[in-house]
Amino acid sequence: MRALTRAELLKLRTTRILGWILAGTLAMVLVTTIASVPSTGSTNPVVPLADPALLARTVGVSYLWPQLTVALLGVLSYTQEERHGTITWTYLVEPRRRRVLAAKGSAIVLAGAVIAAATLAVSLVAGLALIRARDGNATLGTEFWQVVTAAALVLAATGLIGVGVGTLVRNQIVAVALTLVWLTAGEHLLIEVLPQVARWTPGGATNSLLQLGDVATTSGSVLHAPAGGLLLVGYTCAVLGLALVIVPRRDVL
Predict the structure, then answer these.
(1) What is the tens place of the pLDDT at every residue in 230-251?
(2) Residues 134-159: what's their mean pLDDT?
(3) Better-predicted residue by pLDDT, 80 or 29
(4) Over the chain, what HEC string results?
(5) How far is CA 38 from CA 46, 48, 141, 206, in A?
(6) Considering the entire predicted model, what is its pTM?
(7) Whose CA is closest to 162, among 218, 100, 79, 103?
(8) CA gap 93, 70 in Å, rounded
(9) Which end of the chain, N or C, is surrounded by fewer C-beta atoms within 10 Å?
C-alpha cells in the first residue's frame, strides 16, 4: 500500500500544470485575504475590524480557493489515467482496484494537508499584517484554531470526493467541468435562491465547518459546525462507497 501511495504522489508531483495550479491558488488566497479585511472607516462591514472573530473568518474564507484546487486534483488523479490510457498498466501492476483507489485517496489527502499548511501560512501572515496595520482585533482565539482544524478536514474530504467523482465520471473534460461549475457557480446560486436547501449541500457543510456564517450567505443560514462536519463526511463516504462498488465491476479499455 505504501508503494502504491508513493507512486500516486509521484504522479501528482510530475503533473505538468501542478506548479501553476498551486501558484495560482496561493495568489488567490492572498487576494481573498486582502479583500476579507475591511478598510479603516468602512461602513457596515460583514465582520468589523474590532470583532475578535475577524482573523478566524479571514483565514476561513481563504480556504475556499484551495478547496477547489484539491477537488480538481482529486478528479485529475483518476481521469488523467483514463485519458492517457495508463489506467490499464496501473491495474496490471495492482489488479485489486480498490487498493488503487485507496492509494489515490491517500495521496490526495496528503497533498491536501500540504496545501492547507501553505494556505494557512499565506492567509495568517497577510491577515495579521493587515488587521494590525488597520488597528483591528487580530485574535488567535479558540475559533481561529477550530477553523484551522476544520479546514484540514474540508480539504481532505473534498479531495476524496474529487477522486470519487473522477472515478465515477471517467471523462476528464466532463468531470472537471462539473466540478468547476458546481463549486464556482452552482453552490453560490443555490445559496442566493434557496439558502435553506444550500445549507445541506457539500458547500453548505463547508461553510458551517469554517464558521463563515454571514460571510457565506446573507441569510446566515448554516448548520452548526459539528453537524456540518458529519454531513461532509457523509457525502465523502457516499461518493467513495459508490466508486468502490462500481470500479471493480467496470471494464477497462
Answers:
(1) 999 999 999 999 999 988 887 7
(2) 90
(3) 29
(4) CHHHHHHHHHHHHCCCCHHHHHHHHHHHHHHHHHHHCCCCCCCCCCCCCCCCCHHHHHHHHHCHHHHHHHHHHHHHHHHHHHHHCCHHHHHHHCCCHHHHHHHHHHHHHHHHHHHHHHHHHHHHHHHHHHHHHCCCCCCCCHHHHHHHHHHHHHHHHHHHHHHHHHHHHCCHHHHHHHHHHHHHHHHHHHHHHCHHHHCCCHHHHHHHHCCCHHHCCCCCCCCCHHHHHHHHHHHHHHHHHHHHHHHHHCCCC
(5) 8, 7, 20, 23
(6) 0.89
(7) 79
(8) 26
(9) C
Asked if pLDDT for residue 45 goes beyond 80, the answer is no
Given a contact cutoff of 8 angstroms between Cβ atoms, the answer to whether 196 and 221 are in contact is yes
Look at phi and psi of residue 135 and say left if phi exceeds 0, alpha if psi is from -120 to 50, else beta: left
Q: Angle of helix 142-169 relative to helix 97-133, nearest 10 degrees?
A: 140
For residue 70, the one-letter residue type is V
Q: Which three cell numbers stand for residue 76?
A: 485529475
Cell 495508463 -> residue: 86
Dihedral sign from CA coordinates of 58, 28, 192, 37: positive
Distance of alpha carbon 157 from alpha carbon 112, whole angstroms: 9
Residue 79 cell numbers, joined: 481521469
Q: Which residues contact 21 (CB under 8 A, 6 or more apart)?
A: 69, 72, 73
> 65: pLDDT confidence band, cut at 50, 70 and 90?
very high
Cα 128 to Cα 79: distance, rounded to the nearest angstrom: 39
- Give the alpha-carbon dihedral of 199, 203, 206, 207, to 10 degrees: -60
Residue count (the chain): 253
